[in-house]
Structure formats: structure tokens, C-alpha cells
Amino acid sequence: xxxxxxxxxxxxxxxxxxxxxxxxxxxxxxxxxxxxxxxxxxxxxxxxxxxxxxxxxxxxxxxxxxxxxxxxxxxxxxxxxxxxxxxxxxxxxxxxxxxxxxxxxxxxxxxxxxxxxxxxxxxxxxxxxxxxxxxxxxxxxxxxxxxxxxxxxxxxxxxxxxxxxxxxxxxxxxxxxxxxxxxxxxxxxxxxxxxxxxxxxxxxxxxxxxxxxxxxxxxxxxxxxxxxxxxxxxxxxxxxxxxxxxxxxxxxxxxxxxxxxxxxxxxxxxxxxxxxxxxxxxxxxxxxxxxx
Length: 292
Fold this sequence. Notes:
Strand order of the largest sheet: 2-3-4-1-13-16-15-14
Distance between the termini: 31 Å
Largest sheet: 8 strands, mixed
Order of helices and strands: EHEEEEHEEEEHEEEEHEEE
Helix content: 10-25%
Number of helices: 4
Structural class: alpha+beta
């Protein structure tokens, strides 16, 4: 039977989901104003509901914000939201309350660039074919890395994690793009600029095969924490060909048997309020077919 389907487009690597980034903050009130009121995301109503940490739902992903100081990703995070116009209006409304912080935002043709009160950069897009079915979510995190490291970083994820990785080149600059889920990537883009010291922020991923990468990390002495039966951590990114350290980024690595895997995340519709409430429109689906 004849068909025109690209079956390889549906293949997954061993990393099957990027669930959260973890970025310490100094003030939960400011975090609520920015992430909940301004960005329009949803605080997880079930876990870490106190005043020392907050988990914020963004489709099927999260940002975790313990009150432990300031952590910033050396790069930016890509997000998708259903409505950029509403986002810009909400951010303008919270500008005065975030005065004196690093908060800022600007609108462009196809995205809104946002800086959180602690300096983390977000590039926020509307749903499009580029992001598949995602209407609300975290399709990628991009890290700035030293010049000459992208190829080695690509080998690290391909050889140790068994993650599909491609090396991209544009205007003489290389980047390693690592598939970490359905329409989710980690991007490591080379820069000649000096980078700040690593401050301990981390990402959390789920693996299909949990044990093979673990054994490889042990062989290279890369296990930084034995968290429990369902989780371990690693920080140093090395070139597996020579063992040279290329970058630092803590990975919280979980198995698919982890009790939190697949836990449903509630996502509210931030455009609905008590003034315009209509029954049945309080939730935002994380995905649906894209249409022009």
C-alpha cells in the first residue's frame, strides 16, 4: 500500500520528556506577580503549596522556584502560549509592581521577549506548525556554551543518553540540538562571549531506559547524587571521546516508573476572570490541532 507518511518524524529518543526547570528566587510574592498574574500560568494546586517553593504549570512542563537565592539560565527558555496579545497586556499591568527588579518585556512580530524579575529570559511564541500540537508549553531551553563545545556536547547526549542530536551551523556558529521529548529540545549554542559561573539551576528529564545511561555515567564518574530508586543526578557535561569537561548543567534524571511521571497538570485560562466568567472555559488544553 502506498503512503506518504514520514514515520521517522514520530520516533523518540531515550529522553522522552523535559518536565521542569528549577530556578531559585528570592521572593515568592514577586514570583506570583510575574509567573501567575503576568505570564498567566497556573500554580500547581496539589504539591509545594507553601511559601518557600512554588511549582508553576506551563502545559505539560513546569518551572520550580524554591526561595534559595537567585539562579538564571545562561541562555533563554522558549515557551508557547495561546495568545500573545493577552500576554503583553497582562505583563504591562504588572510592570509597576515589578519596578526595581530586572523585569522587562518587548513585543515583536512573532514573539514576546520577557525577562523575569531575576534575569531569566523567555522567548514566548504563539502556537504554530513549528511547535506541533503545543498550544501551551515549553518546547525548548537554549543554553549559551563556549565556542568549540557544541560537537562534544552533541556526543555527550547521543552516546551517554541515547538522545537524537543534530549539529546545526549558522553564520559560522554551531549549536547542538538534542531531542528530549515530543516537540521538545535542548539547544546548546556556541558563543564567543564570556559566560557567568554556573549557579546550580537544573532541568528535570524522564528516560525510557533508565539504567544504561546510569552505568555510563558511573563509568565516567559523573553521578553527582543518588537520589533514590527512581532518580539520580549528574552535572558535568563531558566529551565522551576524551573526557574533557565542556559545560555544567545539573540533570535531575527520573525513570518512567517514578511516581510523578505523567501526573496531570492543571492549566487555567488566564483570560477568564470573575467579570467575564463563562462555564466551561476555565481550563486551557496543553495541545490541540494547529489551524491558521
